[in-house]
């Protein structure tokens, strides 16, 4: 769904290794990719995603793998962010949350704005 992902498989000369997360001859790891994308969308850090997958599946994933998966959805996000808006919205909600952040060695206030519009059909 998110494109090809390169997986490095260790050699097993005796054929005794039985993979847990990605089974032998499996080409689709959608479950793990979906978990990574869902956690990333919620703002979970790469390290916390690694910990979650280790606890849930018992597998260690590299930060590079997580970045490769999340980088594949960036064009989809950009396309959605740049979509044309409707001309009329019956209701528009505006809100902001303020954060103190360090910028150029000083603590400054920054705002993250959120806007939700409801169109004439009642869709957000």
TrEMBL record:
Keywords: DNA recombination, DNA-binding, Transposable element, Transposition. It comes from the Bacteria. The keyword DNA-binding applies. One of its GO terms (biological process) is DNA transposition. GO terms for molecular function: DNA binding; transposase activity. InterPro entries: Transposase_mutator. Belongs to the transposase mutator family. Required for the transposition of the insertion element. This is Mutator family transposase.
């Amino acid at each position: 769904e998110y494109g090809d992902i390169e997986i490095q498989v260790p050699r097993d000369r005796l054929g005794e290794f039985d993979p847990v997360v990605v089974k032998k001859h499996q080409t689709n790891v959608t479950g793990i990719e979906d978990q990574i994308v869902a956690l990333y969308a919620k703002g979970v850090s790469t390290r916390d995603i690694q910990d979650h997958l280790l606890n849930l599946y018992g597998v260690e994933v590299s930060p590079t793998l997580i970045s490769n998966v999340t980088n594949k959805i960036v064009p989809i996000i950009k396309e959605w962010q740049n979509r044309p808006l409707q001309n009329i919205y019956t209701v528009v909600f505006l809100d902001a949350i303020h954060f103190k952040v360090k910028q150029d060695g000083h603590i400054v206030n920054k705002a993250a704005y959120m806007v939700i519009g409801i169109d004439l059909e009642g869709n957000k």
